[in-house]
Amino acid sequence: MKSHSNFNRNQFKDYQSIIIRVITLWIITFYMIRLWEGALPNTFYPLHLAKPQYDLSYWFIRWTQLDLLILKNAMSANLFTVSLFASLVLLFIWPKKWGLGVLAWLHLFLLYALTNIYIGHSQHYLAASVTILLVACLPIRSWFSYAWEGMRFFTCWLYGSAFLWKLWFGAFTDWGTGVETVKINMAAWMYHHPKHFFTDILAWGISHPFLFNAGHKAIIIAEGFFIIGFFTKKYDLYLMAFALFIFISTMLFSDVFFVEQLIILFPLLPLTFWKYLNGQKQMQHHMN
Amino acid sequence: MLFISFLKSVFYKERRLFILLMVFLTALILTNLSRNQISPFYVWSMYASVNHPQESYDFPVIIYNEETLATEPFYRDFHKMHYQYPLYNYLSYENYGNKDWHAEKAHHWLPNNTELTKKIYPTNEDWNNFFDSYQHLLQLKTNSILYQLQIKNVSVIYDAQGYPQVIKENIIYEKS
Description:
The structure holds 2 protein chains of 2 kinds. Chain A folds into 2 domains: 12-139, no CATH class; 142-257, no CATH class. Chain A is 69% helix and 0% strand. Chain A has 14 helices and no strands. In chain A, helix 10 packs across helix 12. Chain A is globular and about 60 Å long. Chain A starts with a helix and ends with a helix. By secondary structure, chain B is of the alpha+beta class. Chain B has 2 domains: 1-49, no CATH class; 57-175, no CATH class. Helices cover 44% and strands 18% of the residues of chain B. Chain B has helices at residues 2-13, 15-34, 80-95, 101-105, 115-120, 124-128, 130-142, and strands at residues 57-64, 67-68, 149-158, 164-175. Chain B has a 4-stranded antiparallel sheet with strand order 2-1-3-4, with helices on one face. In chain B, helix 1 crosses helix 2 (15-34).
């Protein structure tokens, strides 16, 4: 128990490069898919209806008109998209250059803000990449291990606070919210796929709501378990399993696809994983 | 407690990092207490509210060049939101008496009709030109020239077997 609940301040310091490379590769992979599917600024630049809500950062971007500069036309939007990938590739090549980390972070942040402002919906799952990439922006090497440990607490905060909000606003204590969420979020999907076997599964669940209501509570409880992460690392692998359970359940039954957010689970991986990955990399280096 | 142990270690070994960490934590706590996100200090409160049974469940359907756009593929993907959420945003404007309700309620922080407000929130012209920009988006996303477009709001209710039944269809926009 003691080894799981005491903090070791330098344990990740030798794995800075591999960790930053893995998270950068994760981001590049999903942004390549976004590019393929036309979900980057080079496709959505025609939208002019901004929804900055009450986020002061969005207000700042609107005030400076940086958004209008980037989304002015196809060329400016394409330039930004190329620049986004270039910054990530540079960071992948030189993961210890904190200036490149800042550059990539600024691109990700702008992408996050522009997407939310112009698509008109707060896509939190993009925020996870923005937050985790802060570890690549630190100018002092000895800070990295602390920052990586800090990100682990942020992951616990992310899921833990989602649980607390549901407790506060009543979603946890309201039995019927589970099936209602399915009915609201899956209506369009069922309408578009009337003959699909999954529509039959959903319809059965809606007419027998116990399963969806109980499943909804199980998801919220799984979020609540993350609070344990503030006390010990002993259950980190269970927490990862819970996060995957939450992701798959909400993907199937709430039509919420936040695969990019799973990047925030990397800090829960044990040191042995990074040791193994680093060992493989070094072995490959020696063989070459 | 692991978190306290972490904070103590940062405090004693890396004082400057500790200050940065405190700034981050303070901003995070304040944005959460105010329930107003200031990126990158996020409030993870989505799906926290109670969902009550509704009279009907509404969603937009897009018929593009005489075919229903596959805005809901079986596999979940990234671009679906790009079809729907700009429409939801526009519909909220129509349902709020042709007013931008965010802009209307921003008076607590922003003076009315100043240059600053006009820079932050869309103008009436932006709202009126929404469908022009949306058509442009659809052409880019489908990689085809538009010759016909119909956007309708479909309302469904669920029958006893749990299947959605259409009870109403309102055409929001049509171009042929």
